[in-house]
Amino acid sequence: MAMKIRLARGGSKKRPFYRIVAADSRMPRDGRFVEKLGTYNPLLPKDSEERVKMDVERVQHWLDHGAQPTDRIARMLEAAGLRTKSERSNPQKGEPGKAAQERAKKRADREAAAAEAAKAPAAEEAASEEAAAE
After folding, report:
1. pLDDT tens, position by position, 83-108
2. Residue 66 contacts residue 39 (beta carbons within 8 Å)
């Protein structure tokens, strides 16, 4: 049985509240679980101790028995000091979309053309000043 440590949603509409549970990975998100390991209330401030509560010993027990945490739970475990911080795989991180890349290229071309136009009159003025000085 492939176990996961994940969030099961509770609470009413627009007022989320989550239980941290150990569940079979084939079960639905809010379905049957093996054990409740804690709670997560995203509506509380980030520095509140009540925001994330978990039974660290039981979480460690499930991790030792091969349960895989979801990405969100892995972040909570890193914050609690139970796991080392891992590199996340996001290959498109920070890359602008196709249209934004095209706009940036056009803007760079316009700026280059404006810089060339600004250099050309300055070079002509310098040449005419040298000719007038002779």
Report:
1. 888 777 777 677 788 899 999 999 99
2. no
Distance CA 21, CA 4 (A): 8
The tokens for 128 are 């005419």
Residue 28 pLDDT? 84
**What tokens does 37 get?**
């390991």
Q: Are residues 108 and 67 in the same domain?
A: no
Domain, as residue range, for 134: 95-134
Q: Distance between CA atoms of 68 and 26, rounded to whole angstroms?
A: 13
Tell me whether residue 89 is in a domain.
Answer: no
- Sheet of 15-24: strands edge to edge? 52-54, 35-40, 15-24, 3-12, 68-69
34/88 Cα distance (integer angstroms)? 28
66 and 120 share one domain: no
Q: Spell out the alpha helix ranges (H) of the chain.
A: 56-64, 71-80, 98-133
> CA 23, CA 88: separation in Å to the nearest integer?
23
